[in-house]
Write a structure and sequence with these properties.
single chain, 96 residues, mainly alpha, 6 helices, 0% strand, binds zinc ion
Length: 96
C-alpha cells in the first residue's frame, strides 16, 4: 500500500483536548492497519459540531464526493467529508 504523508493538523485541533485525544487514537489505529473508520467519523463529527468555523470550503469540481453531496443536499455528510482533509492524507480523505 502506498503511504501518503499525514498532514500536520491545524493549531485549533491541538488546543482542543477532544481533538487531540481522537487524533492520537486515529494515528495509533491507522499505523496499525486499516480499520480507523470509527475514529475518523467520531473526529469528523466532533469538528463539525464543535468547530463549525473550521470546516473547509468544498473541494471543487475535481472532487466527485463534494459534487455528489452538493447535488443531493447532504450538508452534514458533506461537512464531515471536508473536515477529513484537515487531519488525513488527501488521497484517503477524499475517498470517504
Ligand atoms: Zn475539538
Ligand atoms: Zn470533497
Amino acid at each position: 500500500m502506498e503511504t501518503s504523508p499525514w498532514p500536520v493538523p491545524p493549531p485549533f485541533m491541538w488546543r482542543c483536548a477532544r481533538c487531540t485525544d481522537l487524533l492520537k487514537k486515529l494515528i495509533t489505529r491507522s499505523s496499525a492497519g486499516p480499520g480507523s473508520f470509527y475514529e475518523q467519523l467520531t473526529l469528523a463529527k466532533h469538528i463539525v459540531a464543535d468547530h463549525p468555523g473550521e470546516v473547509p470550503e468544498p473541494h471543487g469540481a475535481d472532487c466527485a464526493l463534494c459534487a455528489h453531496y452538493a447535488k443531493h443536499g447532504d450538508t452534514s455528510l458533506s461537512e464531515e467529508h471536508r473536515v477529513r482533509s484537515l487531519f488525513m492524507p488527501p488521497g484517503v480523505a477524499r475517498s470517504t
